[in-house]
Write a structure and sequence with these properties.
Structural class: alpha/beta
CATH topology of the largest domain: Rossmann fold
Number of strands: 12
Largest sheet: 7 strands, mixed
Radius of gyration: 20 Å
Number of domains: 2
Bound molecules: S-adenosylmethionine, zinc ion
Helix content: 40-55%
């Protein structure tokens, strides 16, 4: 933890600022506080700092379901810690109409940062300050991957009860609200951490076109895979990833090329399979693992996603059906930003037609 994090951290019980207790240990070069404690300036609650990360989660406040999700994903990110260069393009594809130019110079909050792959993207895109929060063991992987970056702060915290001051220019959450007991509460909490001109982007699994997952995969995930220990789960996910890899690379890709000259129908789940055919086997193994590990996975409809924004008091979002199987949404409290993003979104969609 860098001392500068104190500008952004707030007590999860009373929202007051926190102070560093004397007697902490720093890293060799003195830039990081590795072990120590924070104390709330209001209610006096103490938060440990261990392995460089302030631990601002309280089991009495977070739901058991969210804590369990954090634990499961902690193992998953530990099994797949790699930062791939393709994440940059994938990130901006997920959160379009947001661009690298939009992010430049901003204070950014990554809600449910996992192994920190998108914090790395934000740093490359020129964000001024990036705060990454995750509820579980993934936060240690994030700290190892990006904690050394000078403008990055890594905190263990719950998206439903963020230990963060309301100062973010831009908060985003990718693939996280769908693993929370209440995605609406997660978004409402994010909305409280952006300022009065701030913006929010999210990406979640969609209900539409995913009936085959909710009918066939979810019961298997709930009864079997989410209960497996990390080693066996990695073997099961690897076995299931193999046909996905072969199908996406050696059937869907050539099929799509053929469609340019021959009027062939689209294959099952074609858009998504084509999308992941860009990745190597390790990444497809990770994507499959990610689907199977989650104890909670919500598949939300367009209307549900819209209702979360309404409930959080945010302007109606720009909604995009991503790969015909998930929802990307953007909203801003700054009407000019929202209008500019609507225009950009329309322009991007027009190029696809
Ligand atoms: C599918 S992963 C996505 C991680 C990251 N956003 C990415 O795209 O690489 C979901 C992450 O959300 C975290 N998570 C789940 N519930 C959470 C909560 N209530 N608060 C904070 N993080 C949470 C998990 O620990 C996990 O790392
Ligand atoms: Zn307090």
């Amino acid at each position: 933890m860098k001392p500068g994090a104190l500008d952004y951290l707030r007590c999860i019980h009373c929202s007051n600022s926190v102070a560093l207790e004397p007697g902490y240990d720093t890293s060799g070069d003195g830039t990081e506080i590795v072990t120590g404690a924070l104390k709330c300036n209001g209610c006096g609650v103490s938060y440990a700092i261990t392995r460089g990360v302030p631990r601002m989660v309280d089991a009495a406040v977070s739901t058991a379901a969210d804590l369990t999700s954090g634990e499961a994903f902690g193992h998953a990110w530990r099994a797949f810690p790699r930062i791939d260069k393709r994440y940059y393009r994938q990130f901006f594809d997920w959160i379009s109409p947001v661009t690298p130019e939009f992010v430049k110079g901003k204070t950014v909050l990554d809600c449910g940062c996992g192994k920190g792959r998108h914090i790395n993207v934000m740093a490359e895109a020129g964000a001024e300050v990036i705060i990454g929060v995750d509820i579980g063991g993934a936060i240690d992987v994030a700290y190892e991957n990006v904690g050394h970056l000078p403008n990055v702060h890594i905190v263990q915290g719950d998206v439903a009860n963020l230990p963060i001051a309301p100062v973010a220019d831009f908060a985003y959450s990718l693939g996280v609200l769908d693993h929370m007991l209440s995605p609406a509460a997660g978004l409402a909490s994010m909305a409280k951490r952006i300022h009065d001109k701030g913006s929010i982007a999210i990406w979640v699994y969609g209900a539409e076109n995913n009936g085959w997952i909710t009918t066939f995969i979810n019961p298997f995930r709930l009864a079997v895979t989410s209960r497996l220990s990390p080693g066996p789960l990695k073997m099961v996910s690897g076995t299931m990833a193999t046909p996905v890899y072969l199908w996406s690379h050696f059937v869907v890709r050539p099929w799509k090329s053929l469609q340019k000259s021959v009027p062939l129908p689209s294959l099952f789940y074609q858009d998504y399979m084509l999308y992941i055919s860009d990745f190597d086997f390790t990444e497809i193994h990770h994507i499959t693992h990610d689907h199977l590990v989650a104890p909670v996975a919500n598949y939300s409809s367009q209307n549900e996603v819209r209702s979360w924004f309404e409930g959080a008091g945010l302007p109606a979002p720009i909604l995009r059906w991503h790969n015909r199987n998930s929802w990307a949404a953007f909203s801003s409290r700054d009407p000019e930003v929202l209008q500019a993003m609507k225009d950009r979104s329309a322009a991007v969609e027009a190029t696809k037609e």
